[in-house]
Backbone:
């Protein structure tokens, strides 16, 4: 039995309200009587407590009820409670607090003890009817497709149903069932999300939300920004290393600072958890795909205070352009230490090497996209090496205050080399030149916040006050040089190419971003209200080593957020919200450095989670505006002014459900009505390029009792304009995905054999922008054999 602490009571002369957090070895010790079989106790009043992290809800309930309550921190870690309202007795209130957690409260001589449900509890406990939806944690594994909680919108473990913003969650189960390795492919079934706007380009994820690009400005891992220097150094993330991916739609600057107005993608790493299953897997497929991966973890001590987890991936593969590699080596270890009942530290590390295409574009013959690739297999490639090390720390100071800090340090080295045609073709022979981009970057991202939970009258507050800071230092050398010619009809992709030696750019960049934020989440009976404000500062220093010059810019902004939601008993939750964003811009005009663009969004929506179900249905309407967009200066054709404006108005529908243990669903539809509302470039009133009006997706996975299972999906992307004047248009297309899997039984229990196909019909689709056309990824087939325990 570990040391305990008593929670202080605000009324010492009276009966103390004590919640004792004891590390019990619940499998041993003297037996005690079940709750309802115990000697009747004086009836006490049952308090109302809001939902939240189970350990905090239990402590609050014990204090308000005036009882002694003991529980093992390990058993409640990562669990979420729906809270309790309207209970007629303390016992009924405890049952409500523990609803859906697999735990019960047992009355003993020294108070109540929380323990797991046993088979004979139905005979020993007085039945209490509590209709509560399944509860989860935003950081622990979930069993299927449905996620009830998310952390991105609030930086706390909060119910999605009770959050007045639109959020999509892609769980590890969805990633595994569809066998995707890129984040871009993982979020392709989410409402409002456009992927692959530039066709197959594996250098980075192409993700567009509500008509605005998020690739460079809204890339987050575990709530911390993954910085981008404006060139090609972008931290890469393997989907298999993630517990989930959370897509927050609309401006989010109040909590995250400089960000795209469309929203953000937060990648949540796999971390130590007793709920996680170990897994090893091997894969083989077309395009020379060979892959092995593992995900293992467990306890390092008998009590379970120290947990570990390690994720690894080794892939040797190509794309449908056989000269383009898709190679990855990844190792991501993590360690969690429950230092005491109030203090937890999690260490997260990752090392990754990858090699892929430096320039996957095919040759354009006028306006026609050919099948000819103009590169060289040995020279053309993007080589990237990255590693990160960070921690997540939390300390519960008392019943009101919790201190949390996340920090990550990273290094990234990138070499990007490719060959380009110089426009001369004679007798079928193309003249080329070589390009090299060599980058180094190191970065620090941190977020320190104080979480305060308190009441003012009938209002229950979760007040978040924090400061985040990001620093990154990068250097870029951009050079060109001669390259051998190539015969288009008989290409030789293995010619010697010298390293480009003529520098076109040699730059150093130092960027510091910081922000102070305050957000209050308020519960008033069935109302869920939120209000936030933030002040940001950005300082950038650019050094041009070719001209020996320096340029410094500074920006600042204040942003706001408001939200209101009403939670009905039947699971319906209408909401309305307002949010702002700002995004610094590089470059200058005649007036000096460009101002940041600014985004504002008004959104109304309706969420529905049938009580007790593992399903969430969301409908949202939004009006999103981006201002300070650069456009031509009508008085000076060589200058730009920031008077442009772009608007997106749309509807999104999404359903994610574990309809049964055997049937899982993910469906979405998006309608976007984008418009350039202010411009001096002649495109006012036109649609922004590469922004489809309609998108839809549906994926179903069904498992038969025999162990055989099937998955099938379709992704529709509407037509898009390829230039600002809307005179070029790319056709719409539909891609089909499918999978079949078999779960063995008997001695081979927990072994799964699966075959997955993306773009089942090998649909050839092209997207053209500003005179360049990009071909989408061809059919890929992966066979996998996995074992879980």
Residues:
């Amino acid at each position: 039995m570990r040391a305990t602490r008593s929670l202080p009571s605000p009324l010492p002369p009276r009966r103390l309200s004590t919640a004792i957090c004891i590390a019990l070895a619940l499998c041993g010790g003297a037996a005690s009587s079940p709750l309802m079989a115990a000697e009747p106790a004086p009836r006490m009043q049952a308090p109302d407590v809001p939902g939240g992290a189970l350990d905090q809800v239990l402590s609050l309930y014990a204090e308000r009820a005036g009882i002694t309550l003991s529980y093992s921190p390990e058993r409640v870690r990562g669990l979420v409670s729906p809270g309790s309202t309207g209970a007629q007795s303390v016992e009924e209130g405890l049952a409500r607090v523990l609803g859906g957690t697999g735990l019960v409260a047992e009355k003993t001589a020294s108070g109540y003890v929380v323990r797991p449900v046993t088979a004979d509890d139905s005979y020993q406990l007085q039945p209490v009817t509590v209709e509560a939806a399944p509860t989860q944690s935003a950081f622990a594994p979930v069993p299927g497709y449905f996620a009830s909680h998310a952390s991105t919108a609030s930086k706390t473990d909060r119910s999605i149903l009770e959050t007045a913003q639109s959020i999509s969650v892609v769980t590890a189960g969805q990633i595994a069932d569809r066998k995707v390795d890129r984040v871009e492919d993982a979020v392709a079934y989410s409402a409002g999300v456009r992927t692959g706007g530039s066709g197959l380009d594996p250098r980075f994820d192409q993700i567009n939300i509500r008509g605005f690009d998020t690739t460079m400005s809204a890339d987050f891992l575990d709530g911390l920004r993954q910085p981008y220097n404006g060139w090609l150094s972008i931290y890469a993330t393997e989907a298999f290393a993630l517990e989930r991916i959370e897509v927050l739609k609309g401006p989010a600057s109040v909590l995250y600072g400089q960000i795209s107005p469309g929203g953000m993608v937060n990648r949540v790493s796999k971390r130590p958890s007793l709920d996680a299953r170990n897994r090893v897997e091997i894969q083989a497929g077309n395009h020379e795909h060979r892959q092995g991966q593992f995900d293992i973890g467990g306890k390092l001590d008998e009590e379970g205070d120290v947990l570990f987890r390690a994720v690894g991936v080794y892939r040797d593969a190509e794309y449908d352009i056989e000269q383009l590699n898709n190679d990855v080596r990844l190792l991501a270890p993590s360690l969690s230490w429950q230092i005491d009942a109030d203090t937890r530290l999690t260490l997260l590390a990752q090392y990754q090497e990858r090699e892929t295409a430096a320039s996957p574009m095919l040759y354009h013959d006028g306006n026609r996209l050919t099948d000819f690739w103009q590169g060289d297999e040995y020279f053309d490639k993007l080589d990237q090496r990255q590693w990160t090390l960070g921690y997540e720390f939390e300390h519960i100071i008392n019943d009101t205050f919790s201190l949390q800090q996340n920090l990550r340090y990273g290094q990234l080295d990138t070499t990007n080399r490719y060959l380009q045609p110089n426009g001369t073709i004679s007798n079928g022979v193309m003249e080329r030149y070589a390009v090299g981009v060599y980058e180094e970057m190191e970065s620090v991202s941190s977020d320190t916040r104080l979480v305060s939970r308190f009441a003012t009258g009938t209002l229950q507050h979760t007040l978040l006050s924090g400061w985040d800071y990001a620093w990154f230092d990068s250097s870029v050398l951009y050079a060109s040089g001669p390259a051998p010619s190539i015969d288009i009809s008989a290409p030789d992709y293995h010619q010697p190419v010298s390293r480009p030696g003529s520098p076109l750019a040699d730059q150093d960049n130092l960027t510091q971003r910081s922000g102070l934020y305050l957000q209050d989440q308020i519960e008033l009976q069935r109302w869920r209200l939120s209000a936030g404000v933030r002040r940001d500062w950005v300082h950038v220093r650019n050094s041009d080593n070719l001209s020996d010059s320096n340029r410094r810019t500074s920006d600042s902004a204040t942003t706001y957020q408001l939200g209101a939601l009403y939670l009905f008993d039947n699971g319906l939750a209408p909401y309305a919200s307002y949010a702002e964003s700002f995004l610094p811009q590089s470059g200058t005009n005649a007036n000096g450095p460009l101002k940041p663009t600014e985004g504002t969004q008004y959104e109304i929506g309706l969420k529905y989670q049938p009580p007790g179900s593992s399903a969430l249905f969301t409908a949202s309407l939004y009006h999103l505006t981006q201002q300070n967009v650069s456009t031509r200066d009508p008085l000076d054709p060589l200058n730009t002014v920031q008077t442009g404006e772009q608007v997106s108005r749309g509807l999104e529908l999404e359903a994610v459900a574990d309809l049964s243990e055997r049937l899982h669903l993910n469906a979405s539809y998006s309608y976007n009505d984008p418009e350039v509302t202010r411009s001096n470039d002649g495109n006012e009133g036109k649609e922004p390029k590469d922004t489809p009006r309609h998108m839809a997706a549906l994926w179903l996975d069904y498992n038969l009792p025999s162990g055989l299972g099937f998955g099938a999906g379709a992704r529709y992307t509407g037509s898009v304009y390829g230039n600002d004047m809307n005179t070029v248009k790319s056709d719409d297309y539909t891609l089909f995905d499918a999978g079949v899997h078999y779960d063995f039984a008997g001695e081979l229990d927990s072994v799964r054999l699966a075959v997955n196909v993306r773009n089942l019909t090998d649909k050839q689709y092209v997207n053209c922008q500003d005179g360049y056309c990009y071909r989408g990824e061809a059919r890929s087939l992966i066979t996998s054999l996995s074992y879980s325990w």
User: Anything to note?
Assistant: The domain at 268-788 is CATH 2.40.170.20 (Maltoporin; Chain A). The chain is about 5% helix and 55% strand.
